[in-house]
Description:
The structure is a single chain. The protein contains six helices and six strands. It is an alpha/beta fold. The chain has a single domain, classed as Rossmann fold (3-Layer(aba) Sandwich). Helix 5 links the parallel strand 4 and strand 5.
Amino acid sequence: MTTPPALTELDWLLFDWGDTLMADLPGQTGPMWQWPQVQLIPGALELLQWLQGRVKIGLTSNARESDEGAIRRALARVGLAPLIQQIWCRQRLGCGKGDAQFWQQLIADTGSAPWRLLHLGNDPVNDVAMPRCYQLQALWLVEQGRGMETDVWHHQQLLDWWRLTR
Length: 166
């Protein structure tokens, strides 16, 4: 299993949005902030609250129907908006996480060396393999009970790890 880096080795933690912080509910269309119901991924709020003041927190998204403002409105519905310092999304950058330009712009915006950035998300390609192509650190993070692969982390497990190793 890939071991998470110590928080002291990082400038930013970058979380994927859909199915990493908030559930991408089946059957819903349009911007998430307009959905009748939105849902946090269990453990996400506690993890982000604990991380406050320890490292900068950003969000990445491939969502086609939500710009930064729409993403912030959805985050506000579950109490996450004040915990996210910056958002990198397809609408703002003009490309998604499968494009080199996305990662190059993100790295430039942070002002950090790529190895001081940790990307966390539920998609093994867009959230783990792609950031690693650009020298970011990356962990596969999924909801508890999903993803039985050996290299998968869950929110509570990650929080426990960082609490023990700080």
